[in-house]
Write a structure and sequence with these properties.
single chain; 413 residues; alpha+beta; Rossmann fold; 16 strands; binds adenosine monophosphate
Length: 413
């Protein structure tokens, strides 16, 4: 038997119904704040991610599904959607629109990671981007919108971690300072941390080695090195979140896996999830559009994983799909009449299904019960049908043409 590839999954109808709720809530919450939907292609030029996400990131180094398009060009299944949206912003001259341009998306993403609960190779993200504003209100509004979405979906045990990365210059000066600090304490560090001083000094903050942790308590923090404007921007974002009653933890070690972030970064985690606790996160990316050859343009956005939101909102109930009418057959020669009745009912705006499996009349009624049909019309002879109320179990004969109007009137003949 051929199975779906490792790390991918089928979205079966029950799950599709839950995802519809995610989509509707996203549209409602982001739509109310003026965000409009965008959809970009599933694959893009590899170069977009190499430049946009960053050559040195895990995503670009290890996780991309890249392939030759047959004409010598390298294409990549999108591992994230921010870089594609910035590409679209430039390609369609959206800088000419009123700024910021506020967009949301619901798209599949592809990363070649080792699969586990909450981590897949094809997964779905909803996300929002505001391009063209450097106002701290934009950062705060986006965080509030994500908090609202998580709350509306009933995502449990959420925590918000918040930090600021400052500018790339601040960050690289800080990296050098941190490296110098780590080198000075080399003897006290765990081997793995020592081995990564040059490549990834920030990882030292995540170490679970006791002695390393003791060293790191005195390590310099990026958040204390922000320049005046960045510090002021961050203070304003925090003040707005405080006013909005959004709880957060300042986490100066918050590093996100994408190179393009500047200033504010944040991540929502859920205690309901195991190792893969990140539900959604984002940040400001004031340099990204320039990296893609555009004019200096600030931007900020977030992405949240649909599978993780659903895992952490375990009882998200999708409304049952109503069935107004099930058309049953008393005799096999009534099929054309039954077919027409079901079609007319749908055209009149009813949810109508038709017997399709050749069941006995008893079997048809049982099936109608199972799918929670509100009414059953049993097509009989000479233009007459028996209309059965599946709640009261009352039934009466009526002319075929009366079936739909009767149902539309709620059962009054
Ligand atoms: P990122 O773009 O890495 O910041 O990811 C944003 C969100 O997407 C995360 O918080 C997760 O909810 C989700 N996500 C990222 N990678 C995966 C994956 N491999 N499988 C499922 N969800 C993911």
């Amino acid at each position: 038997m051929i199975q779906a590839p490792r790390g991918t999954f089928d979205i079966l109808p029950d799950s599709a119904a839950q995802r519809k709720v995610v989509e509707e809530q996203t549209e409602k919450i982001l739509g109310a704040a003026g965000y409009r939907r965008i959809e970009t292609p599933t694959f893009e030029s590899t170069d977009l991610f190499a430049r946009g996400v960053g050559e040195a990131t895990d995503i670009v180094q290890k996780e991309m599904y890249s392939f030759d398009d047959g004409g010598g060009r390298s294409l990549t299944l999108r591992p994230e959607v921010t870089a594609p949206i910035c590409r679209a912003y430039l390609e369609h001259g959206m800088h000419k629109l009123a700024q910021p341009v506020k967009l949301w998306y619901l798209s599949s993403c592809f990363r070649s990671e080792s699969p586990q609960r909450g981590r897949y190779r094809q997964f779905w993200q909803v996300g929002a981007e505001a391009i063209g504003s450097s106002a701290p209100e934009t950062d705060a509004e986006l965080i509030v919108l994500l908090a609202d979405l998580l709350e509306a979906l009933g995502v449990k045990g959420t925590r918000l971690r918040l930090s600021s990365l400052g500018t790339p210059e601040t960050r690289s000066a800080y990296r050098e300072e941190l490296k110098t600090f780590l080198r000075a304490h080399e003897a006290e560090l765990a081997d793995t941390v020592r081995g990564r001083i040059e490549l990834n000094p920030l990882r030292a903050f995540d170490s679970d080695d006791r002695r390393t942790q003791a060293v790191m308590r005195d390590a310099p923090l990026l958040i204390d090195r922000l320049n005046n404007e960045d510090a002021e921007h961050f203070a304003q974002v925090r003040a707005l979140l405080d006013d909005a009653g959004i709880a957060y933890e300042l986490d100066p070690t918050l590093v996100r896996g994408l190179d393009y972030y500047t200033r504010t970064v944040w991540e929502f985690t859920s205690d309901e999830l195991g190792a893969q606790s990140g539900v959604g996160g984002g940040g400001r990316y004031d340099g990204l559009i320039e990296l893609l050859d555009g004019p200096p343009t600030p931007g900020v956005g977030w992405a949240a994983g649909i599978e993780r939101m659903l895992l952490a909102a375990s009882d998200l109930a999708a409304p049952a799909e109503p069935v107004d009418l099930f058309v049953a057959l008393a005799r096999p020669d009534g099929t054309r009449t039954a077919f027409e009745l079901a079609r007319d009912a749908r055209r009149a705006g009813l949810q109508a299904q038709l017997e399709l499996a050749g069941r006995s009349l008893k079997g048809q009624l049982k099936h109608a019960d199972r799918i929670h049909a509100r009414w059953v019309a049993i097509v009989g002879e000479n233009g007459v049908a028996t209309l059965r109320d599946m709640q009261s179990h009352e039934q009466r004969d009526t002319k075929l043409e009366n079936v739909i109007p009767t149902i539309l009137r709620g059962g009054t003949p």
